[in-house]
Here is the input.
Amino acid sequence: MLFFVARRLLYLVPVLIAVSVLTFVIASLLPGDLAYVILGDQATPENVAALRHDLGLDQPIWLRYLGWLWHILQGDFGRSFRTGQTVWQAVSERVPVSFELMILAELIGLAIGVPLAIACAAKAGSAFDRFMTGSAFGMLSVPTFLSAILLIYLFAVELRMLPATGYVPFTEDPVANLRFMVLPALTLGLAEWPGIMRVLRSDMIAALQEDYIALAKAKGLKPSRILFVHALKPSSLTLVTITGINIGRLIGGAVIVESIFALPGIGRLLVGAIYTRDLIILQGVVLLVAAGFVIMNFIVDLLYAVLDPRIRHGHA
Amino acid sequence: MNGALLSVEDAVVDLPTPRGNLRAVDHVDLAVGAGRTLGIVGESGCGKTMLSRAILQLLPRKAKLSGRVIFDGQDLTTLSAEKLRKLRGRSLAVVFQDPMTSLNPVLTIGTQLIETIQEHLELDLAQARQRSVELLTAVGIPAPEQRLTQYPHQLSGGMRQRVAIAVALSCEPKLLIADEPTTALDVTIQAQILDLLAREQQRRHMAMIIITHDLGVVAGRTDEVAVMYAGRVVERAPTPALFKQMRMPYTEALLAALPKLDVPPHTPLPAISGRPPDPTRPLKGCSFSPRCRYSAGRCSTEKPRLSPAETLEHLYACFHPIAAGSGA
Here is the structure.
């Protein structure tokens, strides 16, 4: 098992290097010279040239990349030239918001998706199954901005139960924090459950056809044990994968939902950095988010091994 | 059929398919007495596995079963799901064909044994563990304590089938159905597994049904043999009587198709020519008549009934049986 973890960790190194190269190159290819952005329209060519020299922009791209990487390896992701905040500060301020949103959204998605998937797989082909599969299809095609607005209308405008926008840190007032979080988390969760449900449902229907399920029935086990132990565990690999991907994606912030509900998360930070051409922030945040995504997938790989002993023992 | 542990009466299994209704089991009558062994023999697709699933009430959801399956005085076809569950694994156990797929790949051997024991017997975890170790020892698995924490993929096919047998034996069943228990295994392992089954059957006084396509498997290991073709039992006899004098041409052809050691190398194997009839398009006459070398007259227009020969125990369904005293 230790060997398995070490090997997977080693795989991470080339992936993270590739991610950093891509992030840097794409940010560099964006139109608009950083020096012009900083100095504004009134800059003289001499000033621009001087600033380019100061920033190292006159060096070849690979040298700039190596310099950037060198600083990052020392923990220095750079500093916004607009706010003076370091990338690290900006991200660590915003991460708790996006992280909480992600956790709540996934919990809601799983809480709806998993029981429905099990119920549908157990009664595959029934009217209930067909109705739920159809509903999942329908939900899958509702964009988040639409469900966000509908939820705001229903719960904030009509019923006046929950606030529409805003944010309070959990440490200041947990109840108020959760009240602000319910609608955005619900919006994302409603978008997550159909995928979760469809993947788990089809995997479980396949698992329920297996010989070992027939044997489990022939052994006289309770239907609940057959469903939750014999069928659910071997079916949950794809579920873990898509949950991991969802989490990885939401670590990067939910751009649309954070914007609609005015949550100060990573998504809003990124959008802001794009609008203000804050390339240093943009580069740093994208790199950190990508790294988070890669690490999340690493955790998913480890979970595979926990769920399926054949992977743990290097058989599959 | 009085006093039989299991009797199957007029069992019919119909499976709806896109090509029409498929009659997998066609009016089958069988009986197994307590402690006795019945062999069910037939080629692939003859309905023997469907028959075993019908006995276990584990048919595919769309399949329709009619007739009666009386086990230990109860008709399984009318039993409630909960009563059936208490019976399965407890007094009615099964070993499936392929041990590579019949054990759950993500649960340990110990879990799969202990869950069965604890479901049916009032034992605590330590006792169930102890019993599992004894069972693994009984089926000839070395280092049984360590096996409990291992997963199926860490064991060879033969070892897995031994585990599956241990699971089946775990609650001292009255009847064990072994559905092609050696087909997926190496030839060298096959005899070991069959001997193991025979030994445990003797020791535990349980009845057993061995389902196989190999007449060689049932010879000497069963009390009675039923030969199935196209969903029907076409010949049924006490094993010695059958091998002394088979009456149904299909049984003879099945035996002739077995490879033998005493023929010179490179002699072509006498296969049964043709293929079994399409089960969605039943024939009017005897289902074997298109492939039968004795076929004549009413064979293609009328279905022969399973009826007794000279002795009441030997039944066959044929208009032109192989004459007594000739053949095998």
Remarks:
- The two ends of chain B are 29 Å apart (CA to CA).
